[in-house]
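Batch manifest line 484
LIGAND: NAI
JOB: complex structure
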Amino acid sequence: MTKIAVAKGDGIGPEIMDAVLSIFEAAKVPLEYQFVDMGKWVFDKGYSNGMTPEAQQAIESLGILFKGPMETPKGKGVKSVNVTARKTWNTYANKRTFQTLHGVDTVFSKAGIPIDITIVRENIEDTYGGIEHMLTNDVALSRRFITRPGSLQVIKYAFEMAKKKGARRITCGHKANIMKLTDGLFLEVFYEVAKEYPELQSDDVIVDDLCMKLVIKPNLFDVVVLTNLQGDIVSDLCAGLVGGLGFAPSANIGDHISIFEAVHGTAPDITGKNIANPTALLLSGFGMLRHLGLMETAAMIENALLYTLESGQHTGDFGDKNTPSLNTTEFAAAIIANFGKTPHHNPKPILDNHYVTPTNFKLERNPMLESIDNNEEFIVGVDMFIESNEQPNWVAEKCLKHTMGLFKLITISNRGTQVWPTGSVFTNLVNQYRVRFESIGNVPVTQTDILELYRLLMVDFKICSTELLNMWGDKKAYSLAQGQ
Ligand code: NAI
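JOB STATUS: finished
ARTIFACT:
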């Protein structure tokens, strides 16, 4: 019998996990559970990552974690247990499926518009590294990492899953029109991978337009792949399309460890009342069962759930207010009572197999340390981020003294908008400028040259941060300022 790790979590976690496991037990799901200590209560005992070493060891050796929601301790410097788990174990693809459930009324179900959308969200990178600094008292900076290997992993997963699902279409959501290098890289990788899947219709939509289209015509979309933060927002939007977070399952897929959980949180307002809706966790459980190859059992329980929803039985958070709601335990019992029944709408076939075993598409060689770009790389300048309360012309005057006969001062920008050599008096200024020096004729310079420039500028400014300006062959590896 396969053994998995189970963490009941905080808040309503134990209530909904007990309900789901009672359904699994009644269905004789052939799984053995190792309950592990993880969550806010473990954090409170002094374990800063929210899990005991025994829990970590068990999850790493078993490879599957089925978890309830966990509270993020409030306070500065404290990281979310959920995000730590996803990042620590490199569960790089977050798959969230959103389907019309008959019995869960939404504007779309009432209009007869079916929804079946799978969001694949990159789960590790982007701003979720939480690498942030105050550059000055007034200016905070967040670093956003989008990497080629990281994008490749999640996008390959999305295509492979879409192919298995028999998807009509796979769409990349992005903001590459503004974030040309970061989202541009994600989009570039998307179309590189798309070439290997000519049978799938692949296209891209800018994320704001995507949100509007999802709300107006959700049935146009099938599989959508996005970077981390945009994927987080768009997947909650999709949860809203099918009835809310109570119906939003989630699978965090990695090469070695996968985590299955509901999208919603610990619901502190209803904790301990036995009224929480266990559906999202149960749907996540189906994902886990299928991931483990237990197709038949998953289909049987899912059909019982669909039948239960169709027949109008509901917990207090959804359904017809004129019929009494069931509590968590009663709702689980109703599903068990419906084992063997077939729903009228969209019964689940046994082989609903779009579950991709990650090892199938592992990158051949060490995936995370390799670059496919063999172009010659050299430094042609530097962006100095300096603190100053002075006007741009004053800043420029000081900088122009220090060009060492090697650099030219190209542009000064404030919050990304050029304010020197040209600009507008209407541009608002904060006390931090980006000053760009490029080598004359773009000849390669050394880090020692940059250090010397730094030393000279230090006399007049506090330098908050620096970024090298690299060239890859004849391609600039940095963006231009707005207006440059
Ligand atoms: P939440 O999802 O816990 O609650 C939002 C609203 O939805 C509340 O009114 C709640 O009663 C309701 N709700 C949520 N799940 C429900 C269910 N199964 N049945 C019926 N009603 C349900 O979001 P909130 O309040 O922002 O977060 C509470 C805590 O949960 C925070 O500490 C947060 O960090 C954590 N959280 C954990 C997640 C995870 O473990 N993956 C995900 C999201 C939040």
